[in-house]
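idk why but the lab printer keeps eating my pages so im just putting this in chat instead. protein + iron/sulfur cluster:
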Amino acid sequence: MSINIKVIESATRENRLNSITGYSGTVKDLVKKVQCGCLKNEERCFSQASNCSSGCAQGYLSRILDAAIVNHGAIGCSADVIGENTTFKWGQNIRSWEKKDVNVINTNMTEDSTVFGGRDKLREGIKEAYKRFKPKAIFVTTSCASAIIGDDIKSITDEMEKEIKIPVVPVFCEGFRSKIWASGFDAAFHAILTRIVKPPRKRRPELVNMINFNGSARDYITEILSKLGLIPQFVVPFATIEQISRMSEAAATISICGTLGGYLGNGLEQQYGVPYVKSIQPHGIAGMDNWLRGLGKTLGKEKEVEDYIDSEKRRIAPELEKIRKKLKGKRAIVGMGPSFSHNYMRVLGELGIKVIWGISWHFDQHYDHGSIPESSIALSKSEEDIPISICDVQNFEILNLLNKLKPDLYIARHPGTTIWPTKMGIPSIMISDEYSAFGYRGIIDFGHSIIDTLENNSLAESLSKRIKLPYTSWWLKQDTFKFLENEVK
Ligand code: SF4
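predcted complex ->
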């Protein structure tokens, strides 16, 4: 286990999981290289802007219903709040709740603070967050500026905690610590594991922690788990501090995403003996089979799980066949976070679509439980060896690939990359809901959504006739991986 809850900071993914952001090759080659211990990160001698782990930590924590965030940094470090607020409101909308904004305050570090220290601004920010939001806990997220000048965040949060008598928890997630923004999830989960989750008051054999983002499939999951005599507790967004503090009482933890859930799931197992179900993601058919079987095995519900799988697969078979016929022969490129990417590549294959390239924003060589990501192993065992690359959303590489390979479809999970193929006239889908293609019902809905996108591409076609791309024709003709240092040019 690589999680150390005795320290106040989580280690970055590069240090804990040997994660990389540069590679080009194939799925089988990638997994083989990890197995023989010879996969190395390929550095880029040119790169464009990417994301930041601070935004990731802050965005995730800001959706806890009765917590507040104090972002100790320059005002620009809180620019992500606009997107976080939109996501928070979307989550409230699908629950038919009255809408409110995220509880986030930025300490507005300026040149003065970086010279004379930001301690007073941080104290003021924590007091203001307490006064404005009356939260049950305050998370203080760090920034490059606060880390570089060495503000002693821990002593200030300890001091303020004594004063306001609620947990005031530092989250060490400054952007420059890691090139992998998912390290921000780990920083958030580390704060939760070490300061919010309490030892169990009692064991609850019916309760399952479900780690996810926004929880649109709550009713579907509740329905599935009720057939197994289980009740899901959706965490961490849209849960309360009290609910999160009792995660240690659950019978098991499952996650919608291997990249997201590994730190908290493994941490709960390590610290409180709550088993973490290590499976491929529940997207598509093989994913849902594996996810449910993993849960069933952990909780001794194998028979109930097999009955459910059998009835659902028989129910969707005729519709799935019709969809496959319509999508047969279509060629797609996928661009997503590592676990989503390798799972959606499999899902597209289940729909009859040929994945001609898969891009992931990073790759964890192993998870915190020691295994190579289950979804990557599963993909590497399929008959076809799919070309893949790894880049932290380097759009110059992605557009170069799209221009060369000219897929029928581009599917991504980050909006910044779907804009460009649309402008190139390529039909594209942005998966903002983590439950798209979830399980047996989801794959049918997802199949229809792809058919709709392919049949109505007039927006992309129209845009492509009017828009000039930011990249020159010189770049589009170059080797896509020209700036990856280990490539032979
Ligand atoms: S990389 Fe650093 S300076 Fe930039 S937004 Fe993230 S924390 Fe702020």
